[in-house]
Amino acid sequence: MSTLTRKETRPFMDLFDWMEAPWGVFRPVSSGIRTETLVKDGHLTVRAELPGMDPEKEIDVTVDDGILTIKADRHEEQIDKTHSEFRYGMSVRRMALPAGADEQHVQASYDKGILEVTIDLKEPAKKAERKIPIRLARAVKAG
């Protein structure tokens, strides 16, 4: 005989469970790709959580005009499921790169469900301060 277990109730519901409900599409962060970034030794590293994906078929990384774009497309297997909390479909995450990001030197690797994108950072060329002359405005005399 199987025994049903009772889920403990928490005051005000678990807000994270509530946000996953069907009306959770209205929440502000809905890219589906969670990331973290760090800068170390002249490199920007962006790590994206993409478990169980085939990086050759389901993940695309591009850099264009100062924007890093990570696209992931998880396809649903057609099997008889009684319950699923997996997210399927296209997810996109775009990030503005900092000044000095070298778009020609970008590397990406995937290991144990984590996509890691490393971008070289170079010191942005320092622009010399330029003094702007101020002209005196001349009043036009009505004649």
Description of the structure:
- Helix content is 3%, strand content 38%.
- The chain has 143 residues and is mainly beta.
- It has a domain at 30-121: Immunoglobulin-like, CATH 2.60.40.
- A hairpin with a 2-residue loop joins strand 6 and strand 7 (114-121).
- The radius of gyration is 25 Å and the shape is elongated.
Task: Quickly describe the structure.
This protein is mainly beta. It has 1 helix and 7 strands. The protein has one helix at residues 15-19; strands at residues 34-40, 43-49, 59-64, 67-74, 89-96, 101-111, 114-121.
Features of this protein?
143 residues, mainly beta, four-stranded antiparallel β-sheet, three-stranded antiparallel β-sheet, elongated
Number of helices: 1
What is Rg? 25 Å
The level-1 CATH class of one domain? Mainly Beta
CATH architecture of one domain: Sandwich
Q: Tell me about the largest β-sheet.
A: 4 strands, antiparallel
* N- to C-terminal distance: 106 Å
> What are the low-pLDDT stretches, counting only 5+ consecutive residues below 50?
1-18, 20-30
Mean pLDDT: 79
Percentage of residues in DSSP E strands? 35-45%
Per the CATH scheme, the topology name of one domain is Immunoglobulin-like
Helix content: under 10%
Listing every helix as H and every strand as E from the N terminus to the C terminus, the arrangement reads HEEEEEEE
Q: List the strand order in the largest sheet.
A: 1-2-7-6
SS content category: mainly beta
Number of DSSP E strands: 7
